[in-house]
Every structure is written in C-alpha cells, then in structure tokens.
Amino acid sequence: MREFLRTRGSGKLADNFFSAAMATCASSVLAIVIFIGVILVLRSQLSLHAFGWKFFVQSSWDPVSGQFGALPFIYGTLVTSFLALLMAVPLALGVAIFLTELCPNFLRAPISFLTELLAAIPSVVYGLWAFFVLVPLVRDQLGPFLVKYLGWTGFFDGPNFGVGMLPASIILAIMILPIISSLTREVMMAVPINQREAMLALGATRWEMIRTGVIRNARIGIVGAVILGLGRALGETIAVTMVIGNHPDIAKSLFAPGYTLASAIANQFSEATGDLYLSALIEVGLALFLVTIVVNAIARLLVWAVTRGAPARVH
User: Fold this and answer.
1) Rounded distance, CA 72 to CA 54, Å?
2) Which helix (H) or strand (E) holds 11?
3) CA-CA distance, 312 to 306, in Å (whole number)?
4) Residue (of 307, 270, 290) closest to 78 by Cα position
5) What is the pLDDT of residue 10?
6) pTM, 2 dp
7) Which residues of the chain form beta strands (DSSP E)?
8) What is the C-alpha separation between 184 and 175, in angstroms, rounded?
9) pLDDT band with cut points at 50, 70 and 90 for residue 9
10) Contact 170/87 with Cβ under 8 angstroms?
11) Which residues pair with 62 in a beta bridge?
C-alpha cells in the first residue's frame, strides 16, 4: 500500500509537469504571433508617424517623392486570392469526391500521389512554368476567348499582355489546389462508412448520398481546408511576382498588371534607399499580417454561421 501511494504521488507530479509543459507550448503560439506583430509595428514607426493609418487606404506609391500607400497592394492581394479560391475550391472538391467515392482502386493511389506532388513543387518552378506557358496562353488563347464571351462584364477590358492579375490568380489556384483537395479528402474519408450505407439503404442516389451523408458531415473540415488554402494564397510571393506585372494599380480589368503585398516586399526590399522607404515596406508587411488575421477571422465567422458552433452530426 505504501508503495502504491508513493507511485501515485510521483504520477501526480508527472501529470502536473506534463500539464505545465503543454500549457507552455500552447502559450508559445500566442507569444510568437504577438512578438511578430510588435516587431512589425516598431520597425514601421517612421512610416506610421509620416502617414498614419491612412497608409492602408492611400493609393499613391512613389518612392522618389516619398509618398507611400498600400491600398493597391491590398487590392491585388485580395483579388488574386479570392479569384484563386473561386477556381480552386470547386476543382479540389471534385477531385476529393472522385478519389473517395467514385475512383477505381487501381487509380486511387496514382492520382492521390500526383495531387500531393503538386504541393511539393517549389513556387519558383510554378513561376517559371507560368511565365513560359501560362502567360502566352492567356495572351493568345484564353484572353481573346474571355473578351469575346465575357467582355461585357468589364473585367476583361484593356490591353492584354499576358501578365496581370488573371494569370497570377490562375497560378495561385493551381498551387492551393493540392492543399484543399488533400485535406478535404482526409475529412471525407473520416465520415463513417455506415453513414453512406444508411443513405443508400433509404433509397438515396449516389449524388444524394455524397451531398447529404458525406459533404454535410464534413463541412467543417472542408471550410478549414479552404482557410488553409486561402492562407497560402495570401502569402505566396515568387510565383505571383513573376506573372502579375508588378505595377501598383487599382483596376477593374483582370488583364491589368497589379501588385500583391508579398510581391511588393520581395521586389523592392533590396532597393529601399531611405529609412522612410524601408519603413514603408515593413508597414506593407504589417498590412499583410493584418489582412491575414482579418480574413481568417471572417472565415471563422463563416464556419460558425454554417455550423452554429455545433460539431457535425451523424444523422
């Protein structure tokens, strides 16, 4: 009995140590985020004092005259990221549904491998492919087609040189496709098999079973996969820099060149000649940090709106 009590006491000590270690790990995440935010704010103080928070709503970016505004970069980041989601999410969902519900067994492993291989390709390789293949395709084939059939929308006006927000959005969609697809497939595979069998036994068609029995129960995980894909799109740098045109414009046309927050930093950081210029670029990084937080917060609100805070249930 005495030996048991001694062992139990040491186990309680180990539990306390384990709880403290896990709490430290969890709090370290918050500490890292706060530390990054504080450093960005401190290093951009010169720009903040010169322009205030109007920096985020001004559209002028002229290093020669010392005028800086991040609105064109924020606009380019949001437009390219959300266009990439519009293209990638339906395709990723289709790939995930095919692999989990419809794909023959002998094809499942090769297609899954190739899909995940897309995530391992370096972004500079995507950029090279986009520059030599996608840009001519948009200029010579896709662009005229869009002008002919969708020119009335106003999104495809102006000259089309092949570089601009449209090819940047397309390459981003390709890059986030494997992330969303792989995570969605894992979430859908976690839905119990008896859920599918129950729907089919009640007379549901294959599509009704997938829509009601699988996608509905996996919707929280699917939205989470989309959020991770959006995070990748917001922060992508090299591939976008090579095809977006790198000009601080706010234009309705998707053929127009643009700039993203990340590509602006990558392009101009080594060229910053003055303290104000450097501080403005660091504040662009702060803008990217804030945009990421705001977009993810909105996405979390969308998750809550879809699920009302309740976990998916098996009916």
Assistant:
1) 13
2) helix 2-43
3) 10
4) 290
5) 58
6) 0.85
7) none
8) 15
9) low
10) yes
11) 67
Q: Is the pLDDT of residue 311 over 80?
A: no
Burial 7-35 (b: 16+ CB within 10 A, else e): eeeeeeeeeeeeeeeeeeeeeeeeeeeee
3-class SS of residue 67: strand
Q: What is the pLDDT of residues 253-268, one digit of tens each?
A: 999 999 999 999 988 8
Question: Tokens 């922060």 sit at which residue?
Answer: 235
260 contact partners, CB below 8 Å, separation of at least 6: 73, 76, 77, 80, 168, 236, 237, 240, 241, 244
Beta bridge partners of 258: 245
**Residue 32, amino acid:** I
Distances 23 to 9, 16, 30, 32, 37 between C-alpha atoms, Å: 21, 11, 11, 14, 22
Place of tokens 């697809």: 181
For residue 98, what pLDDT is reported? 92
Cα gap 47→282, rounded to integer Å = 9
- Print the SS3 string covering 278-299: HHHHHHHHHHHHHHHHHHHHHH
Per the rule left: phi > 0, alpha: psi between -120 and 50, beta: everything else, 251 is beta
| Amino acid making up residue 79 | V
How far from 93 is each of 109, 140, 185, 187, 299, CA to CA, in Å?
A: 17, 30, 8, 11, 18
pLDDT in tens, 98-118: 998 888 888 888 888 888 888
